[in-house]
Amino acid sequence: MENTENKKNNSEEELKLSRRNLFAIAGWGGLLTSMAASVGAALRFMFPNVLYEPSPIVKLGKTSDYAEGSITFNESERMFIFRDSTGFKVISAICTHLRCTVNWSEINNRFECPCHGSVFSTDGKVISGPAPKPLEWLHVKASPDKRLVVNKNKVVDKNYSLIV
Amino acid sequence: MPAKKIDKQDIFPKGSGKTYGLLELVDGESRIASKEPEDTVFCFPHLLTPIMMCTLVTTIVLVLVSLFFNAPLEEIANPVRPPNPAKAPWYFLGLQEMVSYDAFVGGVLFPVLFVLGLMAIPYLDRNPLGVGVWFSKTRPIAIKLFTIFVIINLVLIIIGTFLRGPNWAIYWPWEDQGGGH
Amino acid sequence: MENKNKFDLRETLSYFAFEVPVKLYRSIIRHGYPDSEKNKSLLIFTNFFLHILPVKVRKHTVKVRYSYCMGGITLLLFIILTITGGLLMFYYVPSTEKAYQNMKDLEFAVSFGVFLRNMHRWGAHGMVATVFLHMCRVFYTGAYKPPREFNWVIGVILLVSTLFLSFTGYLLPWDQLAFWAITVGATIASYAPMGDLQRFVLLGGNTVDQGALIRFYVAHVFLLPLVTTLLIGVHLWRVRKDGGMSGPPL
Ligand code: HEM
Ligand code: FES
């Protein structure tokens, strides 16, 4: 008798508890979800959707401005333009280590980075230093008005060349 | 007017409407109370005086340095050409030196390991001895390991500050190294 | 009672001249001259700025040759940096076009501008040095051992935030050092697990430009000082809760 009474009470208690648990779970769940959502929103907020940055596609000088066999450094776009007997090749001057600008060393016939001493050969390969990758060769084409157009986001093979 | 007899009003200011004062909740024995009273001194003036002296000396030194030495300011930013050599302030030259071997290992892996390693020290060191004494002989290994850590940092900073010149190549201090801080 | 309504010039003047100053003083400083034990105690715990200190400390704590005041000097430098930095903000505009000019103005056109800038820069160098020395002191005196383990961890976070404060700080003049330090620093971030995403969020874009400067500025004058101030508060509170500064066992 007593036992059954107890049992009944217990299960009622359990029922109540589980109902209470449900509310507790819902409450905590709602709270934590909204907190997580706020953190997520704050993080997302830190990533701008519209960038006012210069276009990665840039127009350089006339093809006839570059003498055959010359290497020209374009200051504002941080790239070297190679003009050989057959055409044009463009290599980025941005060091693949930590993005300093490499210098062309006339004496050593190679690229040298002033920041942590990476050295690259004429075809961009790493000779020494901490740079993990060769310098990037960039896609170049000629516009209808015979000017060079370089796409800084389009990396090409080192044998790629614009034949003129 | 030194109060000889302390009565209730002195401790609980009259009319503040406050009838309670919580001084401290302590779990277990109190370290200070368990000792004879002679082992403690009043903060005023015994601690406040050294604090004031430290404050004065530090402030005077900083003011003098600031009067006679100007903070560095380089050329205006030129997004095309980094200075050669481009040196960070002395406290980051250790990092710069590590980065000049490998960007990931020197710039990410080692710094993260340094910080996590430092944080873990109290949980790794299970020797309870040697608290409150400089260079206690009871913890020779811990002291040696930490000293090695300090020396590595100093050596990297010294190399970066005094031995690196243009193109981050090794130069001796008496050779011309170009700019820097 | 009756003359209360009557205006007595002499009484009024003497009230303002002698009684009001005393009342004013007593309303601010609520204890007598600290020559009694009671007043020495009241001096500490009725003062907002001093009440982080206990009334009494172990004799050991007072020895300068134990801590060399390194934590205290770090705190002092942080306070000096907050004040001088707040003043510099009146003349500094976080714009890639103006920032460098503002620095030159501080040097040549603002009274005491150069002095404040020097205080701020050398104070920052000093703080990096003292925070490191403080850490060494704590290590070599074994002061990180129980119950102070977690205060050491907070200390390490303070060391890191001090370094980040310095880094974000010297980027603001937008000189050569600033520009190439951001360039290199943000690229280091791209070697961490999530790659270019981290560089993008640090710079607020793909190039080192206005977006990057404003991010480092907000970090330097708001986020990092806020975090550092909070952590210093917890750090000092824990020093007290852990039984005051460490010392040899009693
Ligand atoms: C912004 C940086 C910091 C400030 C303002 C600061 C401030 C303080 C102050 C005022 C003390 C009291 C004792 C003394 O002056 O030596 C102290 C104690 C302590 N600090 Fe720091 N600290 C900083 C960074 C650190 C760092 C980097 C560590 C270690 C990694 C550290 C670990 C500790 C520990 C464990 C204690 C207790 C020492 C004892 O009881 O003897 N703190 N700190
Ligand atoms: S950026 Fe070129 S070597 Fe580091």
What's the story with the biggest beta sheet of chain B? none
Question: Largest sheet of chain A at a glance?
Answer: 7 strands, antiparallel
- What are the low-pLDDT stretches of chain A, counting only 5+ consecutive residues below 50? none
- What is the number of helical segments of chain A per DSSP (H or I, 4+ residues)? 1
Could you name the CATH homologous superfamily of the largest domain in chain A? Answer: Rieske [2Fe-2S] iron-sulphur domain
Structural category of chain B: mainly alpha
Measured between the Cα atoms of the first and last residue of chain A, the distance is 105 Å
Rounded mean pLDDT score of chain A: 89
Number of strands of chain B: 1
Overall pLDDT score of chain B? 84
What overall geometry of chain B do the principal axes of the alpha carbons give? extended
Tell me the greatest interface.
B-C, 76 and 93 residues
Secondary-structure element order of chain A, N to C: HEEEEEEEEEEE
Number of separate domains of chain A:
2
Structural Rg of chain A: 32 Å
CATH architecture of the largest domain in chain A: 3-layer Sandwich
Radius of gyration of chain B: 27 Å
Low-confidence stretches of chain B are none
What small molecules does this complex bind?
Answer: protoporphyrin IX containing FE, FE2/S2 (inorganic) cluster
Q: Can you lay out the helices and strands and say which pair or pack?
A:
The complex is a heterotrimer of chains A (164), B (181) and C (250).
Chain A: H1 2-45, E1 57-62, E2 71-74, E3 79-83, E4 87-92, E5 103-105, E6 110-112, E7 119-120, E8 126-128, E9 137-142, E10 147-156, E11 162-163
Antiparallel strand pairs in A: 1-10, 2-3, 3-4, 4-9, 4-11, 5-6, 6-7, 7-8, 9-10
Chain B: H1 8-11, E1 40-42, H2 43-46, H3 48-68, H4 93-99, H5 103-124, H6 140-162
Helix pairs in contact in B: 4-5, 4-6
Chain C: H1 9-28, H2 37-45, E1 56-58, H3 64-67, H4 70-88, H5 99-108, H6 113-140, H7 149-170, H8 176-189, H9 196-203, H10 210-241
Helix pairs in contact in C: 4-6, 5-6, 6-7, 7-10, 8-9
The structure holds protoporphyrin IX containing FE (HEM) and FE2/S2 (inorganic) cluster (FES).
Protoporphyrin IX containing FE binds at residues 67, 69-72, 74-75, 78, 131, 134-135, 138, 143-144, 148, 151-152, 155-156, 158-159, 162, 232, 235-236, 239, 245-246 of chain C.
